[in-house]
Amino acid sequence: MTTIAIYSLKGGVGKTTLAVNLAWTAAVRSARRTLLWDLDPQAASGWMLGVTPPREKAHAMFSRDVAPSKLIRPTGVERLDLLPADASLRELDHLFREMDKKKRLQKLIASLGDYDRVILDCPPGLTETADQVARAADLIVIPVVPSPLAERAYDEVLRHLGGRTPTMPVHAMVDRRRKLHAEALARRPDWPVIPMASVIESAAATHRAVGDIAARSPAAAAFADIWRRIEQRLAS
Asked: Of the residues 81, 91, 125, 204, which has the maximum number of CB atoms within 10 A of its CB?
């Protein structure tokens, strides 16, 4: 079982969209038994997949009141399960500091059972949760909108991680017609690219993955390419 975190210092960069579509690709295209774990109190991953959260609050698994396995829900996609979030995770940073268990998330992941891949949809910010994620993940995928401010935030993340965990940057929400975007892509030609595309919004609105509703679209190909690169990184 390997853990891939989808993380960004900034919000609004397509993080959850990337997490959901990579989880779908892992489960459907690579036939990996996959768990998508939503750590963001906005709970957008569950909404995008049309999953109703359990009655138990998500923070309970961190305080040992309930086992994570009891909160896992099927998604309707073969081999893809979800560990949903809810608003109770707004207190997660405080709970981590109070418990003073630096590897709490890592131990919870180890207890999840027979999954090939665990994908973490992380909340934004340089927080205690981010530090827990850095200790637990085998790879951190970082979506970066092609702009100077977003690139600055990416550099700050790298400084904060200090090389503790391998990272993979991804240019997200790309509009090649925009000069700033074109210049950013020219500076980083080796980074994968997710285009700005209406099909991505349409997929979210119908609670499905892009590969499910538009398998031949450039957006679906972009997510598949990123997942292929992730598998190559994990294999090496």
From this structure: 81
Q: Which of 2, 28, 10 is nearest to 147 (CA)?
A: 10
Angle, CA of 34, 102 and 120, to the nearest 5°: 20
> Across-strand partners of 138?
none
List the structure tokens of 49: 């997949």
Please spell the DSSP secondary structure of 108-161, one letter per residue. HHHTS-S-SEEEEEPPSSSSHHHHHHHHH-SEEEEEE-SSHHHHHHHHHHHHHH
**Which pTM does this prediction carry?**
0.94
CA–CA separation, 229 and 38 (whole Å): 22
DSSP H stretches of helix in the chain: 15-28, 44-48, 92-99, 104-110, 128-136, 148-161, 179-187, 198-205, 210-213, 218-235
Q: What angle do CA 138, 152, 184 make, to 5 degrees?
A: 95
Domains and CATH numbers, the chain: 2-235 (3.40.50.300)
Residue-wise pLDDT for 99-154, tens only, equals 888 899 999 999 998 899 999 999 999 899 999 999 999 999 999 999 888 888 99
Segment 12-36, tens digit of pLDDT = 889 999 999 999 999 999 999 999 9
What does the alpha-carbon distance between residue 136 and residue 232 come to, in Å, rounded to a whole number?
19
d(CA 81, CA 24): 10
Q: Which residues contact 147 (CB under 8 A, 6 or more apart)?
A: 180, 181, 184
